[in-house]
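TL;DR need structure tokens for one chain.
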Amino acid sequence: MPSASTLRDPATDPSMWAISYKQLEDFAKELKKKWGGAYSLLTMRDIVAMEIRPHCAKHRCSYALSKNPQGRRVAAFVTHCWDESFEQFFLAIQSMTGHMQSKPDMFICSFSLLQGDAATVAAQVDVSIDASPFVSALKQADLFMAVRNSVVDIYSRGWCIVEIITAMQLGLVGGHRTLIGGPDTFASSSGSCFDFRCYDKRDRIKLLRYILDRSEDDIDKVDSMISEFRSFGDDSRRMAAEAAAAEAAA
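>> reply
TL;DR here they are.
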């Protein structure tokens, strides 16, 4: 009898829209070779517009499915922001997985979704949040990988808020199931999950309703966890907290 995984249709099942670390690494190498010195200036948004969208149009599917026609099961979900430097993004992924002998296959929205015009993207995400490809992929993932950057706080972005809320509900946040990488530039930020920005007005309404559906206690837990994600690895904050605790105990 075929396994559950063999019954999945990779064309319609987001839990099969992963790319391998090697595929991401090869993409980064080709990009660096093509763009030379300009490589370090490119954002993920630039990459999607100039590289991934044309690739998707040529192959009539997402980048991930063009490389994996039979699909590739999501082992890790990567939450990030398109305004980031692509080089910084890849280096963060490289650092986060450097200790792993076997690298996880990753759902990265820019590669996993079919990129195109607004209508093409809307056809994939203009559904309830619970039915969105992001939640479907998170339900399959074993790891939750948060990639921060030095340009914008990822937790000022609506979908990143929804992704951490969902990851918390699924038990993906905390311990060995969470990886946090990239610079802690926004460690001192105190913005709440309600303070997010969103490019699409309809998306903003949908995301806000999703957040408002949480209890006050849940919201406090989300804000606390976001603060931890922002400041993870910030030695100055850790040392200040330790010094304050030592002073209080004296």
